[in-house]
User: What shape does this take?
Amino acid sequence: MYNLACARPLAKALRAAAPVKRSAVQQRRCLSIHEYRSAALLESYGIGVPKGGVATNAAEAEKVAKSIGGDDAVIKAQVLAGGRGKGTFDNGFKGGVRVVYSPREASILADQMIGHKLITKQTGAAGRLCNAVFIVERNCLVNGAGLAMATMDIIKLNGGTPANFLDVSGGATPEAIRQAFDLITSDPKVTAIFVNIFGGIVRCDAIAKGLIQVVEQMNLKTPVIARLQGTNMEAAHKLLNDSGLKIFSIDDLQAAAEKSVQFSKVVKMARDIDVGVEFTLGI
Assistant: This one.
């Protein structure tokens, strides 16, 4: 009895000292949540996100689109996979991310998405079931998603509504700028173009030359507000302001955003009453 009692504490100590045998396979924990949940989480911490809402049926989609207001919105299939915009549903409907121009159209497209499997490069042939859609306001030619988000935020803070988000990444070449402007100006509701680029990989003066070339080639009438920061920014500023074109170079982000919104309002008013308008900027 005595020996057994003494052995128990010893065995306990040996077990405590022995290394714990762990699995050779390391566990991975990943957080993957739908876009509308991510937006709600960001908004709960005071971070600005586009106005929108989630819908689980066609009637809800129409209601959300009405609440957003404006002339258009974007409807996005809530499926945990990349490549949704180029995906195809099992009913043959193409595109899991679409622009809609009325609440009724939002309802029709939601009906094509909800309850059907979206097939993308990431899902494989089996696809993934879409149980909900996220409808948001359609939201600036920029390089870098962070800079794009900041640009949209400051335009909103100045009373404007971004009509288009276009990221040219590190390739702000004349060809890329031309393609970007072609896309942007294809929307007749665009009344001003705010170019906000950090010139790191591509020098600011090279970007400025590309902008001038494209605006001249397109005979662009829409005012362009350019904020180019980084390498050779002073040379870029001079090139743009000496070009004689409707390109206004402004270094300060707040001032550039404010002028973009003001230009947009003036152009819209002029279009509404069908008159021409010319701009000069005393800077």
Remarks:
- DSSP finds nine helices and twelve strands in the chain.
